[in-house]
Amino acid sequence: MEGITLTEKSSVIKSFNNNVVLVSYKGMETILFAKGIGFGKRMGDVIPENTVVEKIFNLQDKQNAKNFTTIIQDVDNSIVGLIEEVIYFISYELGEELSENIHVSLTDHISFAIKRLQRGEAIENPFLIETETLYKDEYSIAKKAAEKLEKAISIKIPEGEIGFIALYIHSARHKGTLSNTLQYNYIFKDVLNLIEKDMHIKVDKKSLDYARFITHVRFTIERITKEIPLNNDLLYIIKEKYPVAFNTAFKVGKLIERALKKAISEDEVAYLAMHLERFKRN
Predict the structure, then answer these.
(1) pLDDT tens for residues 229-269?
(2) 183-201 burial, b for 16+ CB within 10 Å, e for fewer?
C-alpha cells in the first residue's frame, strides 16, 4: 500500500491504539493510521515532518471535530481505535473517500451498540430486508466490518446491526445524512403497509417481485426529488387494464407526495401499478 508523507509536524491529541492517533495537523484535527504510530504516544507528543502514514482523515468541519471530541471522551480508546480501523477498512474496500460525518455518526452508533450487546439487549432493525436489497455493496462491506468487530471484541454482531452499519456506509458514500436514508426506508415501510391493507394481500419481502418493487420505488423517489420527468406511453392502457392496482398505486403516490412534499405524475403511478399487479397475481 502506497504511503502518505506528512509535509509538516503534528501534535498528538490522543492515541487510540498502536496504529491510530488523533493529532493536530495543519490546523485541523486529523486521524492518522500507520503501524506503530500510536505506540507510547501521549498528548502533546510530536509526530515529525516526513513521517509516512497509511491513511489520513481530516475533520475539516468544526462542528464535526467538536462532536468527535465529545464522543471520544465517553468511549474507551481501544473501541474508538477499533471503529476508526473499521472506517479505514470501509473506505479501502469501496476505493473512495467517505464523508467525514462517519467518524462522528458511526463511532457514536457502534460504541452504543457494543454496550447494548454486552448487556444482552436485542437489536431490532425494521429495515433489514430493504437495506440488503437496496444497498447490496454497503451491506456486503458491513458484514465484513462486523466480522472485524466480532474478532476484536468477541461479541456476535447480529444481522440487524449489520443493516444499521450498512445504512451509515450508504449515507457516508453519498454525502447525505442518515436521516434522509432512514426517511426513505420509512417510506418503503409505509408503502408496503398501505399496499397489503388496501389490496388485502401479504407481500413476501424475500421475493424477487418485492426486490424489484422497492428498487423501483427508490428510483421513483430519486426522480421526484430531482424533478426528473418520466413518460409512460402505456398510462391509459394500464389504468384500464389494471384498475385495482392503479387505484392502490394512486394512494401510494399520494403517500410519497406527502412524505417528499413534491408532486408525483400519473406516469409514475402507472409504473407502480404494474408492480402491484404482480403482487396481486402472486
Answers:
(1) 888 989 999 999 999 999 999 999 999 999 999 999 999 99
(2) ebbebbeebbeebeeebee
**The overall pTM is greater than 0.85:** no
Q: How many domains does the chain have?
A: 3
> Are 152 and 68 in the same domain?
yes
Query: Is residue 65 within 8 Å of 29, Cβ to Cβ?
Result: yes
Q: Please say whether the beta carbons of 136 and 100 come within 8 A.
A: no
Cα–Cα distance, 147 to 139 (Å, whole number): 12
* 8 Å CB contact between 128 and 160: yes
Q: Which domain holds residue 187?
A: 178-281
CA angle 81, 87, 93 (to 5 degrees): 135
Q: Is 237 exposed, middle or buried (0-12, 13-18, 19+ CB in 10 A)?
A: exposed
> Are both 159 and 74 inside the same structural domain?
yes
At 97-139, the pLDDT tens digits run 999 999 999 999 999 999 999 999 989 888 899 899 889 999 9
Q: Which DSSP symbol is given to 41?
A: -
CATH number at 234 reads 1.10.1790.10
Shared-domain flag, residues 144 and 212:
no
